[in-house]
Specification:
This is Methylthioribose-1-phosphate isomerase. It catalyses: 5-(methylsulfanyl)-alpha-D-ribose 1-phosphate = 5-(methylsulfanyl)-D-ribulose 1-phosphate; 5-deoxy-alpha-D-ribose 1-phosphate = 5-deoxy-D-ribulose 1-phosphate. It comes from Marinobacter segnicrescens. GO terms for molecular function: S-methyl-5-thioribose-1-phosphate isomerase activity. Strands 6-5-4-7-10-15-16 form a 7-stranded mixed sheet, with helices on both faces. The protein has a 4-stranded mixed sheet with strand order 11-8-9-14, with helices on one face. It has a 3-stranded antiparallel sheet with strand order 1-2-3. The N terminus is likely disordered. It is built from 12 helices and 16 strands. Strand 12 and strand 13 form a beta hairpin. By secondary structure, it is an alpha/beta fold. The chain folds into 2 domains: about 130 residues, Four Helix Bundle (Hemerythrin (Met), subunit A), CATH 1.20.120.420; about 210 residues, 3-Layer(aba) Sandwich (Rossmann fold). The structure holds 5-S-methyl-1-O-phosphono-5-thio-D-ribulose. 5-S-methyl-1-O-phosphono-5-thio-D-ribulose binds next to helix 2 and strand 9.
Length: about 350
């Protein structure tokens, strides 16, 4: 039952497998705030609009943020003045860099765009070359996801189907297509090696409930949605053999920033002797930072905790702590999979052996 992976550049592809579309004069983003109730596409024609969409989480997930920002830079060139185009694109890059702080894919993509910008001789040249680069970033991310799924399955070396547990949303919605951790889940399903995937609902923004469950149900992949607090009880049952998550930033020593709750899950996995795998493209690895404590962790508005869907579930005046990522130390991770290869026990070598 091998499933053909849709091309995200094929406009006729079904929307469940595509979350970012490049139209040439605009980028279209499937508005993730409105899922699963509504499949609503935003059409954005400028960098400021892309920055706002990232900030407001209309698009989210580390690779998808980087890809969208790259298209934002391309749009800035299109909309720029003939004389001041270089300054205008520089300003757009600075605005995009302020959108969210933790996922390094944003800064990685902007750096790539900036180095192409430096080589451009005219606005016309910049319009063409920046669009080409953004498309390349998008395509490379999809290719990386497919390669990581192959590498992960080889490393898991399963001889029979198993159950896995995942956190947040790391699927087609969070990436250039297919997914990182969820790409591995998809590939397990394609190879008939998946019994079921437990999806943490992922409080407070509910990426697991609203997005992961939506993607998997659409694709007919057996998914069980659970409250985050149920993860320990699920691992205690002994059915789950792997916890598989994505990442927003991986430091040189192999520490991993990912959606809040990931660290607790890694502690639970170690306690229950369940393997813990992180799947992320090399664009998520930040070799300039030595350890996880160096990573800037985003804190978002307290309303995300006090309310669900705009309805108050806590006193309006209660104090709230809302960090949206945490850091899992390398010593709790069994495997980090990138498209460039696999790091076993990252505590021992960090990311140095793979990415130098
Ligand atoms: C392939 S996505 C990996 C991570 O970006 C994902 O797990 C995550 O933490 C997303 O956070 P979000 O706040 O939804 O952008």
């Amino acid at each position: 039952m091998t499933r053909v992976t849709p091309d995200p550049f094929d406009q006729s592809a079904s929307p469940d497998t595509v979350a970012i579309r490049w139209l040439g004069h605009a980028v279209q983003l499937l508005d993730q705030r409105r899922l699963p109730q509504e499949e609503h596409w935003l059409t954005i024609e400028g960098a400021a609009g892309v920055s706002q969409a990232i900030r407001d989480m209309a698009v989210r997930g580390a690779p998808a943020i980087g890809i969208s920002a790259a298209y934002g830079v391309a749009l800035a060139a299109r909309g720029a003045d003939e004389r001041d185009w270089r300054t205008e694109v520089d300003v757009a890059i600075a605005v995009l860099a302020e959108s969210r702080p933790t996922a390094v894919n944003l800064f990685w993509a902007l750096q790539r765009m900036e180095s192409v910008l430096r080589q451009c001789r005219s606005r016309e040249d910049a319009v063409a070359r920046l669009a080409e680069e953004a498309i390349a970033i998008h395509r490379e991310d999809l290719a990386a996801n497919l390669a990581m799924a192959d590498l992960a399955l080889a490393a898991m070396a399963l001889d029979k189907p198993c159950a896995v547990l995942t956190h947040c949303n790391t699927g087609a919605l969070a990436t250039g297509g297919y997914g990182t951790a969820l790409g591995v889940v998809r590939r397990l399903h394609e190879q008939r090696l998946l019994k079921r995937v437990y999806a943490d609902e992922t409080r407070p923004w509910l990426q697991g409930a609203r997005l992961t469950a939506w993607e998997l149900v659409k694709d007919g992949i057996p998914v069980i949605l659970n409250a985050d607090g149920a993860a320990g009880a699920i691992l205690a049952q002994g059915d789950v053999k792997w916890v598989i998550v994505g990442a927003d930033r991986i430091t040189a020593n192999g520490d991993v920033a990912n959606k809040i709750g990931t660290y607790g899950l890694a502690v639970l996995a170690r306690h229950h002797k369940v393997k813990f795998m992180v799947v992320a493209p090399s664009s998520t690895v930040d070799m300039t930072l030595e350890r996880g404590s160096d990573i800037p962790i985003e804190e978002r508005d307290g309303r995300e905790i006090r309310q669900v869907g705009g309805i108050a579930i806590a006193p309006e005046k209660v104090g709230v702590f809302n960090p949206v990522f945490d850091v899992t130390p390398a010593n709790l991770i069994d495997l980090i999979v990138t498209e460039r290869g696999v790091v076993h026990n990252p505590e021992v070598t960090g990311m140095h052996k793979l990415l130098g």
